[in-house]
Design brief:
The structure holds two protein chains of two kinds.
Chain A lengths: L9 E5 L4 H12 L3 E6 L7 E4 L2 E6 L2 H8 L3 E4 L3 H13 L4 E4 L6 H13 L3 E3 L5 E4 L3 E4 L8 E8 L2 H10 L5 E6 L10 H10 L5 E7 L4 H12 L4 E6 L11 H7 L5 H10 L3 E3 L2 H13 L7
Parallel strand pairs in A: 1-2, 1-5, 2-4, 5-6, 6-7, 10-11, 10-12, 12-13, 13-14
Antiparallel strand pairs in A: 3-4, 8-9, 8-11
Chain B lengths: L4 H10 L7 E4 L2 H11 L3 E5 L12 E4 L2 H11 L3 E2 L2 E2 L3 E4 L4 E12 L4 E7 L6 H7 L5 E4 L8 H11 L6 H13 L2 E12 L4 E3 L3 E4 L10 H4 L6 H8 L3 E4 L4 E5 L2 H13 L6 E4 L6 H12 L6 E8 L4 H14 L6 E7 L2 H11 L4 E3 L3 H11 L14 H7 L5 H4 L8
Parallel strand pairs in B: 14-16, 16-17, 17-18
Antiparallel strand pairs in B: 1-6, 2-3, 2-6, 4-5, 7-8, 7-10, 8-9, 10-11, 10-12, 13-15
The chains are: A alpha/beta, B alpha+beta.
Chain lengths: ~300, ~400
């Protein structure tokens, strides 16, 4: 099995006819994703041929869903139009919207996350690589050929660290890898993914990658301590990062001293999570934890 | 982007918030002239983007224009937490009856903005927040609704502010939303002897992602930026200058941050953070490499790329292209994995440059770069051993470099 995305997922792409949208639609199709359409009001009714597949373009998310039964939208819409595009997807009540777009103003993200939440649309991202259930479906820009299906679940703020860990653990394989994005306001959190992996009978161990800023990792640590029975291995980036410019005076009042990598690592370890010092060491901890978990894997 | 106090003051004033009359100058003589225009007795305030100016002696009262000139001369050129004072604000003094705190900031966990209000403003607000959190009210704002009159009244009551502040509360919310700010903070917000609500100081952080719809910001940008950072910005590179000797280049903010940590774990200090981003072209790689090589502090360079969208052969071509124009005088360690890694490694191999080294793993590459920078930890371990050198050093040893907070990125 997998979380959020399976072989049955029917995917549409908002922004498919743009350069990034076309490139990644081609990659998603090659990875086996069931891409059933694109959305572009100005090109409604046209078709796009991609490597021998013909993908129809619809005028709206609603029309695409009604025609194809789509239940996932991947968005490559540029920042100035991202808020309208997510709002449209939520109005159509699509269950999952994966927002790849980088550089969306925070005020827009605050508005569309609240809007989508009220309409039961799960948003992943923005500024994320999307998610992949290897061998089943790939919604976003994660390279599909660096790993294989398996029983590790991975949730990460960072795209390239996701790839690095997928590659390090390519011989074991993954149920689903979810890139939740590095923006201050994101839809799906570490905790959402941890809960889904905990409930997924085909995930044996969870890898959680965090980085400096905010207190999402500390909150995830508290969640793990109370709700997660599966082994969790963690990694945190940013021990040597300089003090950030956007973390102002009032920000410190909100989050206290919990934005540092050291605090995040300590919180995770206190919750029983093994935290690696490097991505490679983290992969080694995964192997060790799996070896001591009876009945799992080979 | 953080604004200077005088820039924040302009935004507040432009939205109807009362602020003291003030002028910004960069010489002591001009401060004297300003004091004459403002009525003689003035406050001289250092304009630097850091807190704690008052405690550092960067905010002083001057009784007359002559004293203003002397005080400005003392403050101009001062160093406050690593920030040099290039300008001072000369402001009319205000008779304060009462000091309060009021701000709007982003609550990342809740994914919305919230008001922070306290009847106890001034220099000690952080201590108040830490010692008696109940004295600082935090009220979430519904993004669709915004700050209505009723919401402003709720914020005032929760924070223990007088009812007369509701207008100011709504105006600060307008500053936040109309200007795409992530933080708008007034500390102290004061009630004057004659009952007016005045913002004595202001701090505003703008959201860089909103630049496309806020064209006026370019003028607000800092002119005195680090020259390498300015060059990187012009080339569209994510670059931060650090204080070490190992130049670091990678793709993706998470992987680059991680690379800095691994270098630090090998006992060396990174000289920079440079993210060439996703899908980087050969040109971007070439721009990045020549930038890092031009940093006089850099003793060795580490290129750590895991190709996802980025193709390793394009990265390798970029390295070759950069070396055509920039003579390599410092050792360069390259680690390529992922998309087209074999082709990329072959291109670097054919280069056969005596100063260019390839490594199979991220940890091994970091250890090599640290060793070549001549600053690697040597106490009983071999710095060439990759993971072993790292394990011997331990990540906790990097705490002295600064386990600092900051923004995150994917």
């Amino acid at each position: 099995m997998a979380i959020f995305l399976t072989k049955d997922s029917k995917v549409i792409v908002q922004g498919m006819t743009g350069a990034e949208g076309m490139k990644h639609t081609r990659r998603m199709l090659a990875a086996g994703t069931d891409v059933v359409g694109g959305v572009n009001p100005r090109k409604a009714g046209t078709r796009v041929d991609i490597d021998g597949r013909t993908v129809p373009v619809f005028g709206s998310v609603r029309e695409a869903m009604d025609t194809t039964g789509a239940d996932v939208s991947v968005l490559f819409v540029p920042p100035p139009h991202a808020k309208a595009a997510v709002t449209e997807a939520a109005d159509a009540r699509i269950p999952l919207a994966v927002v790849i777009t980088e550089g969306i103003p925070v005020h827009d993200a605050v508005a569309f996350q609240a809007y989508a939440r009220a309409r039961a649309t799960r948003v992943i991202g923005p500024n994320c690589p999307g998610l992949i259930s290897p061998g089943q479906s790939n919604a976003g820009i994660i390279p599909a050929d660096i790993t294989k299906p398996g029983r590790i679940g991975l949730v990460s703020k960072s795209g390239t660290l996701t790839y690095q860990l997928m590659y390090e653990l390519r011989d074991i394989g993954f149920s689903t890898c979810v890139g939740i994005g590095g923006d201050p306001v994101i839809g799906t959190t570490h905790i959402d993914a941890l809960a889904a992996f905990e409930a997924d009978p085909e995930t044996d161990l969870i890898v959680m990658i965090g980085e400096i800023g905010g207190d999402a990792e500390e909150r995830a640590a508290r969640y793990i301590a109370g709700h997660v029975t599966k082994p969790v291995v963690g990694y945190i980036a940013g021990f040597t990062a300089p003090e950030g410019r956007t973390m102002g005076h009032a920000g410190a009042i909100v989050s206290g001293s919990s934005g540092t990598a050291a605090a995040k690592k300590a919180a995770l370890e206190a919750a029983g999570v093994s935290v690696g010092a490097t991505p490679t060491e983290t992969a080694g901890l995964v192997l060790a934890r799996l070896a001591e978990t009876p009945g799992n894997l080979a | 982007m953080d604004l200077y106090e005088h820039q924040a003051r302009e935004l507040l004033h432009g939205n109807g918030v009362l602020v003291p009359r003030a002028e910004v100058v960069d010489t002591a003589e001009a401060a004297r002239a300003s004091a004459e225009r403002l009525g003689g007795r003035v406050v001289i305030k250092a304009q630097v983007k850091t807190g704690g100016r008052g405690k550092a002696g960067g905010v002083r009262l001057a009784d007359d224009p002559v004293a203003a000139e002397l005080t400005a001369r003392r403050i101009l050129g001062m160093d406050i937490k690593g920030h040099t004072v290039h300008r001072v604000m000369v402001a009319e003094p205000v008779e304060v009856a009462r000091e309060m705190y009021l701000g709007f900031t982003l609550d990342r966990a809740a994914g919305r903005f919230l008001a922070i209000a306290s009847a106890e403003g001034g220099m000690e607000i952080e201590e108040v927040a830490a010692r008696r959190p109940e004295a600082v009210a935090r009220i979430a704002v519904d993004p669709a609704e915004g700050v209505t009159e009723a919401k402003a009244a709720e914020i005032a009551v929760a924070g223990g502010l007088p009812r007369e502040t509701t207008g100011t509360i709504r105006r600060l919310w307008t500053v936040l939303t109309a200007h795409d700010a992530l933080l708008v903070e007034v500390n102290p917000l004061v009630v004057t002897r004659d009952g007016a609500i005045v913002a004595l100081d202001g701090k505003v952080t703008l959201d860089d992602n909103a630049r496309f719809r806020q064209p006026s910001w370019d003028a607000a940008d800092d002119r005195a930026r680090d020259p390498l950072e300015a060059r990187a910005a012009a080339a569209g590179l994510g670059y931060v200058k650090l204080d070490g000797r190992v130049g670091v280049i990678g793709n993706g903010a998470g992987l680059v941050m991680s690379t800095l940590d691994v270098v630090a774990g090998c006992g060396a200090r990174p000289a920079d953070f440079l993210d060439i981003g996703g899908g980087a072209s050969a040109q971007v790689m070439a721009d990045g490499l020549s930038l890092v090589l031009d940093d006089p502090d850099v003793r060795s360079v580490l290129v750590n790329v895991f190709g996802g969208i980025t193709a390793c052969d394009a990265v390798a071509d970029g390295i070759v292209r950069a070396l055509d124009t920039v003579p390599l005088t410092k050792p360069l360690v390259v680690r390529l994995d992922g998309n087209n890694a074999a082709r990329g490694r072959a291109i670097i191999g054919q280069l056969a440059h005596p100063l260019v080294h390839q490594a199979d793993t991220m940890d091994g590459a970091a250890a090599r770069a640290a060793e070549l920078a001549g600053t690697a930890a040597t106490a009983g371990t071999s710095a060439t051993g990759g993971t072993s050198a790292f394990a011997a050093t331990g990540i906790s040893d990097t705490s002295d470099i600064s386990a600092a907070s900051g923004t995150s990125a994917a």
